[in-house]
Recover the amino acids of this structure.
């Protein structure tokens, strides 16, 4: 489950932020901001993608680097919330 | 104000070359032409000058190149010496006689008397070349702040120079090639770092420098550079009223001498504080009334026409405006790149080009603007941002301090929705070390450099190990580290971005594209030097920018202008290219096989970027930067490397 979430997120990052350049994909634990991959508009693009792809609403208070700044963090955050959404 | 070109060394057909060089920059001087071969072929070294004239001072009698009475000195001069009246009177009092009424002869005479020491006497915006037949040398100089341009290149032992690189492209056998390191600099700092230019092998004479070239080679020296007092030497107990009065006096005089011309002088009105101040001072001094000029936009985000009209009504001036649509920007952009002669990462020069066409159509060729006040008196958001970042860094992890970033950028909707944690992360509030000399500029540099993602693997390998920001650090003076952080930030902005982008790509080149001369009272060196001595808190007081300037001019302005928060001048970027006509243009310039063939960018990624930007109303900073950067670079290749291709095909 977690690996397929990660793969979905990686694909989104490669397509949307790296314009297909897979070689530029950062490691799962690397900061997307420090890597110059995401800026303030990019975060909102990421949030819109998560909501559409995983079927839950991202609360404003959840939009913090701790949840969204690495592929690992995003996958963990999505894993916690998507399962809640599915269970409900 | 004009254009100049010339050489020292050996030129095969000197008259023909000088004429071609003049042709290439004819837009800078539609009112007259002249050329002169001072040292003919066979003499060592040969020398020639070419000049295209925009007549502003000494309309009837100041043709160039101008030669001294004894025939030993000849000058080609672009720009103005604003204090020539005083200098001329001083020389007349000492027994000198003049044949013309203009500033060119004064400059020539000053050189005759003082040699290179003449530069410190000049208050002006200039680039000029003087052939000194006595010493068989060429003396080339540029103004302190970098208002007027001067480029040079060397080929087979001959030095060629000109106001714009286009003139150098006429040198037989010269081929334009894009310098990959310059491209890296543009994609980091918005412009190449002088003396480098976008053209391999072409350099610019840096502001405040002069060059002496003779048979033995060339030597470059600095006669002026921006300096600040050590942080510990800044006096905190300055009298504010006293300083405000001094500022006012200097600014009035700087404006007064910039109204000197034998043709009417107008004034630009952006709607902001700085141009309002200049227009207010000029309106009082213009005997026949003042014409003001403004650009308006359809999008509320960019348009400032409400403030422009308010100010025009307040002054009772004759106001002219021209609207700039997204389609106008797209249509003008190839011309903008041709005039700027370097890749751009913003479209903001395009509306300036349109504004100069309005000025020209109105029948005027000289305008004052408010340029320089944001550098000299600390107006840019970046200065406030650096202050907030320092404030945040003193308490890492603060949940409250980063909210100040939102206050800095009320016009950026993307930021308004962000959490304190993200704000801190975007601005590197917790990350950048305070000891970093580029601390103030890191978020901008990092945000711009993110667009290097689109560089091709080939370009990346050519640039391996190169970092434009390190290059910038290497050019800082030794004393930089002793200055107050605000002064360090002001220095970076004034030394690099101002001449490299603001005064050139957005300034001289866009105005002169339509034969219009801009004059900038805030960049009078007396005012610049005065401002460096002010305590930082007189410039940026808390988060109130240009504090002392506002105070000194409050009685001349409506309160809405005096208290207006700085709105940066911006124009629609990738969005300007979203219309059907512009999309066709984009697809032609960014055709994947052409992009791949030129080898600078990853063609597949660029293709996706084009699609993404076309479908978006609010692209990210990075995507906007990349789109305009790639588009303008490919246009640059079409315009400049294309010229070579066509020339070599014809030959």
């Amino acid at each position: 489950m977690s690996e397929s979430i990660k793969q979905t997120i990686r694909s989104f990052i490669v397509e949307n932020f790296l314009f297909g350049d897979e070689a530029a994909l950062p490691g799962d634990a690397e900061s997307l901001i420090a890597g110059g991959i995401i800026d303030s508009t990019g975060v909102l693009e990421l949030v819109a993608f998560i909501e559409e792809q995983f079927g839950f609403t991202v609360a404003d208070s959840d939009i913090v680097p701790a949840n969204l700044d690495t592929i690992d963090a995003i996958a963990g955050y999505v894993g916690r919330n998507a399962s809640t959404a599915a269970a409900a | 104000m004009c254009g100049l070109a010339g050489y020292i060394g050996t030129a095969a057909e000197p008259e023909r070359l000088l004429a071609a060089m003049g042709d290439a920059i004819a837009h800078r001087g539609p009112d007259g032409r002249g050329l002169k071969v001072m040292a003919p072929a066979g003499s060592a070294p040969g020398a020639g000058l070419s000049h295209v004239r925009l007549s502003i001072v000494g309309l009837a009698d100041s043709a160039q190149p101008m030669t001294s009475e004894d025939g030993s000195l000849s000058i080609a001069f672009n720009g103005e010496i604003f204090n020539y009246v005083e200098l001329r009177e001083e020389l007349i009092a000492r027994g000198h006689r003049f044949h013309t009424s203009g500033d060119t002869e004064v400059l020539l005479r000053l050189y005759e008397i003082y040699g290179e020491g003449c530069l410190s006497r000049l208050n002006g915006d200039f680039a000029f070349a003087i052939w000194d037949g006595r010493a068989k040398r060429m003396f080339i100089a540029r103004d302190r702040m970098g208002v007027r341009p001067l480029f040079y290149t060397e080929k087979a032992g001959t030095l060629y120079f000109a106001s714009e690189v286009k003139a150098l492209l006429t040198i037989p056998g010269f081929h334009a090639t894009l310098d990959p390191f310059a491209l890296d600099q543009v994609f980091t700092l918005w412009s190449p770092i002088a003396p480098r230019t976008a053209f391999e092998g072409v350099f610019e004479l840096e502001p405040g420098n002069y060059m002496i070239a003779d048979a033995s080679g060339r030597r470059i020296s600095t006669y002026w550079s921006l300096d600040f007092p050590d942080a510990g030497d800044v006096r905190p107990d300055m009298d504010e009223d006293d300083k405000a009065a001094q500022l006012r006096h200097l600014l009035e005089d700087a404006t007064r001498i910039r109204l000197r011309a034998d043709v009417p002088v107008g004034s630009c009105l952006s709607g902001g504080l700085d141009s309002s101040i200049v227009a207010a001072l000029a309106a009082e001094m213009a005997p026949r009334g003042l014409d003001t000029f403004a650009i308006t936009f359809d999008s509320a985000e960019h348009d400032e026409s409400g403030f422009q009209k308010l100010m025009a009504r307040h002054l009772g001036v004759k106001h002219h405006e021209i609207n700039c649509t997204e389609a106008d920007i797209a249509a003008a952009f190839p011309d903008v790149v041709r005039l700027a002669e370097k890749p751009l990462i913003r479209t903001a020069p395009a509306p300036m080009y349109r504004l100069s066409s309005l000025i020209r159509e109105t029948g005027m060729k000289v305008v004052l603007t408010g340029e320089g006040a944001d550098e000299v008196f600390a107006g840019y958001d970046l200065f406030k941002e650096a202050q907030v970042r320092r404030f945040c860094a003193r308490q890492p992890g603060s949940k409250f301090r980063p909210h100040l970033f939102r206050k800095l950028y009320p016009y950026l909707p993307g930021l308004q929705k962000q959490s304190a944690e993200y704000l801190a992360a975007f601005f590197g509030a917790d990350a950048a070390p305070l000891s970093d000399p580029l601390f103030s500029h890191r978020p901008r540099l990092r945000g711009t450099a993110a667009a290097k993602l689109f560089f091709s693997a080939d370009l990346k390998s050519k640039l391996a190990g190169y970092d434009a920001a390190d290059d910038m650090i290497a050019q800082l003076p030794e004393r930089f580290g002793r200055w107050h952080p605000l002064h360090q930030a002001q220095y970076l902005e004034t030394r690099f971005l101002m001449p490299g982008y603001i005064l050139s790509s957005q300034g001289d080149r866009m105005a002169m594209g339509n034969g219009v001369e801009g004059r900038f009272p805030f960049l009078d060196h007396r005012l610049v030097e005065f401002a460096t001595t002010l305590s930082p808190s007189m410039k940026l007081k808390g988060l109130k920018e240009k504090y002392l300037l506002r105070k000194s001019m409050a009685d001349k302005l409506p309160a809405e202008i005096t208290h207006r928060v700085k709105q940066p001048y911006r124009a629609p970027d990738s969005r300007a290219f979203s219309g059907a006509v512009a999309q066709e243009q984009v697809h032609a310039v960014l055709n994947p096989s052409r992009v791949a063939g030129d080898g600078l960018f990853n063609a597949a990624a660029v293709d996706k970027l084009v699609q993404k930007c076309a479908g978006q109303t609010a692209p990210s900073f990075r995507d906007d930067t990349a789109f305009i950067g790639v588009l303008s670079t490919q246009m640059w290749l079409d315009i400049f490397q294309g010229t070579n291709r066509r020339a070599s095909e014809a030959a």
Q: What stands out?
A: The radius of gyration of chain A is 12 Å. Residues 71-87 of chain A form the longest helix (17 residues). Chain A touches chain B through 26 residues (CB under 8 Å).
